[in-house]
Amino acid sequence: MAEKEVVLKLEKVSKSFAKIETDEVTHALNNVDLTMKSGEFISLVGPSGCGKSTILRLIAGLINPTTGKVTMDGKEVLEPSPERGMVFQKPTLFPWLTVEDNIAFSLKMQGKLKGNEAKVERMLKVIGLEAFKDDYPGQLSGGMAQRVALVRSLINEPDVLLLDEPLGALDAFTRMNMQDEIIRMWQEKGQLAIMVTHDVDEAIYMGTRVIVLEANPGRVVADIKIDDSYPRDRASEKFVKYRNDILNKLHFAGKR
Ligand code: ADP
Ligand code: MG
After folding, report:
1. Confidence band (pLDDT; 50, 70, 90) for 255?
2. Could you read off the pLDDT of 123-135 as tens digits, one per residue?
3. What is the residue with the minimal CA distance to atom 26 of ligand 1?
């Protein structure tokens, strides 16, 4: 169970960006309403440019809506906070720090490292990189670096974990292992996780809910509860049914 139960809402959120070279405006999101809470694993899927990263950046407080609002427990989200931790597609590690120091970095910055050394050790163990703790990011494979980036965010125990295509750059085998690892860590903590992916199977395999978006303007076209226990079987009848349903909603099933 999460230490703190939270409710996160997007209320009639729209976000527009001025295009740089013309007078036109990009409607990245139009009138999005969403309610999400602790214990949920939300998968956001949709074509490139439908506003998935924009939703995460709004929730992180890195940007603010053009109209509407984002709230956490009723309080408007206007700026970043350690309560809402983000993991990006490309691992963002400090190249001049070792694996161990990268993981410990935020605790150190907050003056919380003392007494929490065991937590750093545990994170190293969780990602199976104890033997690499003194290595530098440049010495790691892409999958290893991504694992470090993930626990580097998890060590803050954010109430809301934001994942922007965290596994996009990994090979298929590492990717599947990481999916299981993220699910295990999320189940242990029970926080609200919100993950962007453009892989429909990954969205269903991991999510308690799959939210399907469409572009121009970015909007929610479906919100599907995945009623299946973990670990999931990608070949089960249930799974295949969800897949067909979602692909249909994405217009990729070749029927239109
Ligand atoms: P996704 O993550 O689903 O691929 P994004 O949320 O990154 O989509 O972007 C949605 C739309 O908003 C795209 O058309 C993108 O070009 C535009 N956009 C996003 N961020 C900016 C920005 N900072 N300035 C201008 N346009 C942006
Ligand atoms: Mg994106």
Report:
1. very low
2. 898 888 999 999 9
3. 17
Domain boundaries, the chain: 7-83+160-255, 94-157
Contacts (Cβ under 8 Å, ≥6 apart) of 194: 36, 42, 44, 55, 56, 59, 160, 161, 162, 163
Handedness of CA 74, 79, 81, 83 (dihedral sign): positive
In this structure, the residues whose C-beta lies within 6 A of any atom of ligand 1 are: 17, 26, 28, 46, 48-54, 218
Q: How far is the centre of ligand 1, averaged over its atoms, from the C-alpha of 170 (Å)? A: 23
What ligand 1 atom has the least distance to the C-alpha of 213?
3
CA of 50 to the centre of ligand 2 (A): 8
Name the pTM for this structure: 0.91
Tallying the residues shown for the chain, one arrives at 256
The amino acid that residue 141 corresponds to is: S
Measured in degrees and rounded to the nearest 5, phi and psi for residue 44 equal -105, 120
CATH annotation of 7-83+160-255: 3.40.50.300
Per residue in 152-190, pLDDT (tens digit) is: 888 888 999 999 998 887 788 888 988 998 998 899 889
